[in-house]
């Protein structure tokens, strides 16, 4: 099973993925963690480029979309193999991040034609202000505007693609329990 957590920056994906990985491991599942951008040379280039002051400009975003697609394509074989071995693949972001963050749905879908779709997407949804207050050094008006749009887009995608939406304004434990309640029945577990 390929499970992915999505959400705007500061939504708490990393913390929740750690807790989720530990819980699934304790329940006896073999868990493989991945994240996008990955740790490949392309992923490292992306992380470097994201620090550029022009990172939110249109042409820059288009270039990033191509890099994100290339980086993602590199890990698809790994995901397929892990799934064949009945391992749980837990991912921080997926193809849907590109649909939420970059513009041009049709083009994004084309360049990601080799990307596997997660079996389950959980969207951590929260107020943009709260998310920004959790991220150091990113409290500009442009940042808020940008993330407001990304959040809106995520909620549209949730409707279109059947993501499970979790209220991430809550505390860490409550969010973890909400996520467990979504995943348990899909893995044949009772909690
Ligand atoms: P993030 O999950 O915040 O990584 P980390 O916390 O490890 O630095 O992802 C980095 C940024 O990349 C984040 O702002 C979202 C953005 N992003 C896209 O714009 N498109 C994509 O396809 C992906 C995977 C990420």
Structure in words:
With 191 residues, this protein is of the alpha/beta class. 57% of the residues lie in helices and 13% in strands. The protein has helices spanning 13-26, 41-50, 58-84, 95-101, 105-111, 128-134, 141-161, 172-186; strands spanning 2-6, 31-35, 88-92, 120-125, 164-167. A five-stranded parallel beta sheet has the order 2-3-1-4-5, with helices on both faces. Helix 2 packs antiparallel against helix 3 and helix 4 crosses helix 7. The two termini are 19 Å apart. The mean pLDDT is 95. Thymidine-5'-diphosphate binds at residues 9, 36-37, 50, 68, 92-93, 97-98, 101-102.
Let me know the largest β-sheet: 5 strands, parallel
Question: What structural class is derived from the secondary structure elements?
Answer: alpha/beta
* Uncertain parts: none
Going across the biggest sheet, name each strand in turn: 2-3-1-4-5
Distance between the termini: 19 Å
Could you tell me the radius of gyration in angstroms? 16 Å
Q: Provide a count of the helices.
A: 8
Strand content: 5-15%
- Unique ligands: thymidine-5'-diphosphate
How many E strands? 5
Helix content: 55-70%
Question: Main attributes?
Answer:
single chain; 191 residues; alpha/beta; 5-stranded parallel β-sheet; 8 helices; 57% helix; binds thymidine-5'-diphosphate
Give the helices and strands, then pairings:
Layout: E1 2-6, H1 13-26, E2 31-35, H2 41-50, H3 58-84, E3 88-92, H4 95-101, H5 105-111, E4 120-125, H6 128-134, H7 141-161, E5 164-167, H8 172-186
Parallel strand pairs: 1-3, 1-4, 2-3, 4-5
Helix pairs in contact: 1-8, 2-3, 4-7
């Amino acid at each position: 099973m390929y499970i992915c957590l999505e959400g705007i920056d500061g939504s708490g994906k990393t913390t929740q993925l750690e807790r989720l990985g530990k819980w699934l491991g304790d329940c006896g599942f073999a868990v493989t963690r991945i994240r996008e951008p990955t740790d490949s040379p392309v992923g490292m280039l992306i992380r470097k480029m994201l620090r550029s002051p022009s990172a939110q400009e249109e042409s820059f975003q288009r270039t990033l979309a191509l890099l994100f697609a290339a980086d993602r394509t590199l890990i698809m074989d790994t995901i397929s193999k892990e799934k064949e071995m009945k391992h749980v693949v837990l991912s921080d972001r997926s193809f849907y991040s590109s649909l939420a963050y970059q513009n041009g749905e049709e083009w994004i879908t084309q360049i990601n034609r080799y990307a596997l779709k997660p079996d389950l997407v959980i969207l951590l949804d929260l107020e943009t202000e709260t998310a920004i207050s959790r991220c150091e050094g990113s409290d500009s008006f442009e940042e808020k505007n940008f993330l407001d749009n990304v959040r809106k887009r995520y909620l549209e995608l949730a409707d279109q693609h059947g993501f499970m939406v979790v209220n991430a304004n809550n505390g860490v434990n409550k969010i973890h329990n909400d996520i467990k309640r979504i995943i348990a029945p899909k893995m044949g577990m009772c909690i």
